[in-house]
Amino acid sequence: MTKPVVEYPEGPPPNDLVVEDIVVGDGPEAQAGDIVDVHYVGVEYDSGEEFDSSWSRGESIRFPLRGLIKGWQDGIPGMRVGGRRQLTIPPELGYGPAGAGHQLSGRALVFVIDLLGVRTPDDAEE
């Protein structure tokens, strides 16, 4: 896959997590406690400005779902390896309300995530 272009959303940001599959994968399915290997692009909902991208760093990133923002914890499970999913995340499921101490606090976010691999925590210990 190549780096996605995030479709700029219209209208006010959603109050709830919006999960949209762009490509449905056919590999193993991510579960809530898994370790995921992903490529992603993140943009601010209001400006469409990219604030983070594994593509820009030239490599995917692997991390446990439970260590991520709530929007990822809720939005990635059920996704299959080989898939591409867009998550539109309200501030409460991202970096919290304005003034919460993160540069993205109070902002709705849009991520396009490619799921490259999935492992259970047990697999990771081997």
Automatic annotation (TrEMBL):
Catalytic activity: [protein]-peptidylproline (omega=180) = [protein]-peptidylproline (omega=0)
Highest taxon of the lineage: Bacteria
UniProt-listed Enzyme Commission number(s): 5.2.1.8
Pfam families: FKBP_C (PF00254)
This protein's record includes keyword Protease: no
Organism: Tomitella fengzijianii
InterPro entries (alphabetical): PPIase_dom_sf (IPR046357), PPIase_FKBP_dom (IPR001179)
Alphabetically ordered keywords of this record: Isomerase, Rotamase
Top-level EC class: isomerase
PPIase FKBP-type domain ranges (all copies): 33-119
SUPFAM superfamilies in alphabetical order: FKBP-like (SSF54534)
Name by which UniProt lists this protein: Peptidyl-prolyl cis-trans isomerase
Molecular function, one GO term: peptidyl-prolyl cis-trans isomerase activity
